[in-house]
Amino acid sequence: MKQSFKLMTVFDIPIEINYTWFIIFGLVLVTLAQGFFPLTNPGNNTFIYWAAAMLATLLLFGSLLLHELSHSYVAKRNKLPIKGITLFVFGGVAHLEREPQNPNVELKMAIAGPICSIALSIFFYSLTVFFKSIGVASILVSMTYYLFIINLFVAIFNMIPGFPLDGGRVLRALIWKYTNNIRTATRIASNIGKGVAIALMGLGILQLFGGAFVAGVWLIFIGLFLMEAAQMSYKQLVFKKALVGMHVYDIMSQNVITAPSDLTITKLIDEYFFRFRHASFPVIEDDKIIGVVTLHDIKEIPKEKWSSTIAGAAMRPLSARLTTSSHSTVASALQLLATNGLGRALVMEDGKLLGIVSQKDIAKLFQMKEDLEQ
Ligand SMILES: [Zn+2]
Q1: Does domain 248-373 have CATH number 3.90.228.20?
Q2: Which of 184, 234, 322, 334 is least surrounded by Cβ atoms within 10 Å, i.e. has the fewest?
Q3: pTM attached to this predicted model
């Protein structure tokens, strides 16, 4: 399932909204319409509260978007390609196609967001003072005041030094500058990010026990989000670094065992699956590869038919989704393996089978590289 949908395009950057964002939108809307506005402006009717809450939520959304765009603007100016922006729970994530080329670019890019939020907060504060002085409806004054506080909060929250929050990126850039090693820098910054996430969740649980249900849920939610993001970003960086420049040829298993297409399932199980313990075998007919037979597919066939069904009838016929070239990059092969429903692909060249490549092999290789680098 797609987890986000496209909202619009700004500076050639597609802006997407993640579905989790709607939960937050709803939470903010309800909190404002039933809590904040009735408390600060008692005596108005429900419609006014909801209208004010809607407007404030949209302006908050706009503020978060501006925050993200300011990151992207700096990235673009430093020739870092941005694939898109996805708005998440708190703020968003700009998808960089690659890591910043040096710590100074990272530093400028990371700090742009909080600076934008502080500018917005000053703007809404001035508006509050101005509205008060000319005596507009007090609910509008509460709204600009709320936006002043929330933008200030967004700036402060994002400056928490846990990767991948902006503050964590600033920290990473500084460690990177000092150690000249982006990997060490990312590891330290994302560990601090995990620490912050655990602290937020702990605080949330305390709030729940203390009876502050909404605040508790908020904190646990943000903590969980931050935890996952911190783990993901470090893993991705290490993974990308380990596999960069590698091709399918470097990692495929050669000397693949193939099964003849006229073999019955019973024999296939005894003589191939039990003997070699692979999860699948390429199927061969007249010296040509015609498909792949998997244990998973065989399980779907009733046992009493195993002695009368041949491999050629139980296999998945050869298709582009099941094959890759030995010159493909490991990164593109991984994408294929993750989506072809088999987790492996045959490496073919001019109709000949050169080898086989699987997700498991790549994971194992990655693990070995990791172990050796410790
Ligand atoms: Zn940011």
Answers
A1: no
A2: 184
A3: 0.63
